[in-house]
Request: fold
Amino acid sequence: MHSEFEFIQNIKNKYGLARVGDDCAVLPKDDKTDMVVTTDMLVEDIDFRLDWTTPEFLGHKALAVSLSDIAAMGATPKWAMLSVGVPKALWKDKFLDGFYSGYDSLAKKSHVELAGGDISQSDKFVVDSIIGGDVPKGKAILRSAAEVGDAIVVTHRVGGSRGGLRLLENGRRLSDSLEPWEENLLLTHLQPWPQVGIGSYLQNLEIVRAMIDISDGLASDLSHICESSKVGAKLYADKIPLDLSLPRLTESFEDQMHLALNGGEDFQLLFTVPAEKFSQLSAGLIEDENGLFTVIGEITANIGIIELVRDGKAEILKPQGYRHF
Reply:
């Protein structure tokens, strides 16, 4: 049986779908601007559980996952279309009010206009989110332009979302009496903040070669860049910026690395730049953003191979991020 990524590649090859393969489709708009469009589907009990979250957080996340794709292209979000499938039980209470409130709150912060959508009855709650944005003509940042010798860079910290999911799986809820580190991990998972401003900032610098958002897991998403760019990668375990709350969740560094590499839904940006231009990333920032950008590795010529270097020893890293099939 094919994986979802093999299925997508097969459809792309079979029907000549040249625009498929990045976080967004890039479409011509006018002589100065391209339009980027992305779509995401969230399904109850597959992508979320209603007893783990709140309607407001779910509405927020439904928009956040798509905004993160826009950020990964270096684009600015402009409009959204939102369709939902609603079970009868949820239709009869105030669930949808809370859901749309959470969605609208993030939309306003992101200057995104909800322009339409659809609604239908379903057995499970289903969300289909479409977001469109703008990027300067020919300047969208793709996955396919990484070059050997590039520095691999990540924004902020990783692993926190999967740490929050583990807490949920272990029965912890936001309604409980929580330690600050527990609340941090739960909110990182339930209410993620996409790096939209940083994405457009990086595009304006015009030094980023390839970029993707971390949704499937750092290792899996890096493998997408490697596959699209026909390169390999080397990561340094001691350079990966782990969420500061992870040591409270698990003392094992091996386990912390697993959460960071394979957890997914951190919605940070993972990108490559020429190594000699890394210092330019922070040069245009007005505020002190210490720790915003971290070099975690380098692009290599070993096509399709990702190495993880730990304690001076290299091992082949096999991505184990989330897959639907």
In short: Residues 164 and 187 are 7 Å apart (CA to CA). DSSP finds ten helices and twelve strands in the chain. The radius of gyration is 19 Å.
